[in-house]
Design goal:
Layout (H helix, E strand, L loop, with lengths): L16 E2 L2 H11 L6 E5 L7 H4 L5 E6 L2 H11 L5 E5 L18 E5 L5 H8 L7 E7 H8 L9 H7 L2 E9 L4 E2 L6 E8 L7 H16 L5 H7 L7 H11 L12 H13 L1
Parallel strand pairs: 2-3, 2-5, 3-4, 5-6
Antiparallel strand pairs: 1-8, 6-9, 7-9
Helix pairs in contact: 7-10
């Protein structure tokens, strides 16, 4: 068999392999998983993190899209009862078919930068895991943890922070990868909120609200509620909802905290 390290990265899959063993161990330590934990690794690639997880955690599920790498992972770990190799796309695989208890699951991965946001929100779908530790582009990490009123604050920050606590753990320089990417990276930790702050219907309304708000981010929130085609709240109810929440109708979306969007979604669901 061709050794995993000799495989060339595929640009079409956004592959950049983490080759620094100290950083590999640091990411696994950040996950904090032990013998009683089930772990899902997204895009294990050549097994940079896998080799530090297998035998350390109770059960390990590897989801790899690349045909050759999935085959190599199967050859290396397929005979282990505590490791399952899933050859597939994490955006399409039904995770509940491969894990025992999603609510206790821990997720880790160095995910492709070209599809970071879809993977992020796929992992944050209900039922949500207990913890997610991901390597992402540094700029994306900044946007995930951004605070209201900052330049990086937007739909990504609100979408994540309304359902999870988000923390930037540490940066990773581009020279830790092969091939070397053009950008630096960072590791983030997401801990989904327990209990869920919103019911499913309210979450659906929240997604509409956040998308509408940041499509029209230069407009005032009152005008967005009343005028955006996805919302179209009548002027009277829109102003009443904002007044009850203590939100000025002239405020702009980038000034509103994630908690305010949650409160708005609750009100709009029954409006």
């Amino acid at each position: 068999m061709t050794p995993p390290g000799s495989r060339r990265a595929k640009r079409s899959l956004g592959q950049n392999f983490l080759v620094d063993p100290n950083l590999q161990r640091k990411i696994v330590e950040a996950l904090g998983a032990g013998p009683g934990d089930e772990v899902l690794e997204v895009g294990p690639g050549r097994g940079a993190l896998t080799r530090h997880l297998a035998g350390r955690v109770g059960r390990l599920v590897l989801v790899e899209l690349d045909d050759a790498l999935a085959a190599e992972l199967g050859a290396a770990y397929g005979d282990r009862a505590d490791v399952e190799v899933v050859h597939g796309d994490v955006l399409r695989v039904r995770l509940c078919d491969h894990v025992r208890d999603t609510s206790r699951l821990r997720v880790v991965g160095n995910i492709p930068y070209n599809i970071t946001t879809p993977i992020l929100f796929r992992l944050l779908e209900r039922p949500r895991p207990a913890e997610i530790v991901l390597m992402v582009q540094d700029e994306v990490a900044e946007r995930i943890v951004a605070e209201p009123g900052t330049k990086a604050y937007g739909a990504l920050a609100v979408g994540v922070q309304t359902v999870a606590r988000a923390e930037r753990l540490f940066g990773v320089g581009r020279n830790a990868f092969r091939p070397t990417p053009r950008v630096d990276s960072a590791v983030v930790r997401l801990q989904p909120l327990r209990p869920e702050p919103l019911a499913e219907a309210e979450e659906a309304r929240l997604r509409l609200l956040v998308r509408a708000a940041f499509q029209w981010r230069r407009k005032q929130i009152g005008k967005i509620l009343r005028g955006h085609p996805d919302l179209l709240i009548p002027p009277g109810p829109a102003d009443e909802i904002l007044a009850r929440l203590g939100v000025g109708a002239s405020e702009r979306p980038e000034r509103l905290a994630p908690e305010t969007f949650v409160s708005l979604a609750r009100r709009l669901t029954v409006a």
